[in-house]
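Quick review question:
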C-alpha cells in the first residue's frame, strides 16, 4: 500500500497537536515535550463563548463535532506513530496533500468520505 515518507508524516504532527491545543486538550498528556512547553498554563475556559469560535474554525465540511475532531486527531497522531498516516483507511490510497492541508486528521480519501456521507459505506 502507498505511504507517505516518515518526514512527510511528521510534518503533520505539530498541525495535529495544534488542533488538540485549540480544542483545549491538556497537552501534557502528549509526548512531544518540545511542542508542549510549560504545562498547566492558561485558564480552563473551555465552556465560555470562545468555544463557539473554535467550532466555527473547524467547520471544514466533513466533521463538525469537536469530539469527533478530537478522536480523529488522536487517531491521526497514532497513525503517524505507526507510520501509517496519509493513507485512506478504506481503500488504502494516499489522501491528497491538499486534502490533508485542509483536514489534517482526515482518515479517508475524498471518494470514500463521500460514500460514507451518502451512506454507501459504514464507518465503524
Ligand atoms: Zn479511500
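Suggested answer, residue by residue:
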Amino acid at each position: 500500500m502507498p505511504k507517505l515518507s516518515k518526514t512527510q508524516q511528521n510534518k503533520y504532527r505539530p498541525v495535529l497537536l495544534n488542533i488538540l491545543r485549540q480544542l483545549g486538550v491538556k497537552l501534557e498528556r502528549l509526548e512531544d515535550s518540545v511542542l508542549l512547553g510549560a504545562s498547566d498554563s492558561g485558564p480552563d475556559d473551555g465552556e465560555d463563548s470562545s468555544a463557539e469560535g473554535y467550532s466555527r474554525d473547524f467547520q471544514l465540511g466533513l466533521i463538525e463535532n469537536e469530539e469527533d475532531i478530537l478522536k480523529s486527531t488522536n487517531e491521526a497522531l497514532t497513525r503517524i506513530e505507526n507510520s501509517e498516516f496519509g493513507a485512506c483507511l478504506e481503500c488504502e490510497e494516499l489522501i491528497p496533500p491538499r486534502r490533508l492541508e485542509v483536514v489534517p486528521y482526515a482518515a479517508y480519501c475524498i471518494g470514500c468520505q463521500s460514500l460514507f456521507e451518502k451512506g454507501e459505506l459504514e464507518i465503524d
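Why it works: The chain has one domain: 6-117. Residues 6-117 form a domain with the Four Helix Bundle (Hemerythrin (Met), subunit A) fold (CATH 1.20.120).
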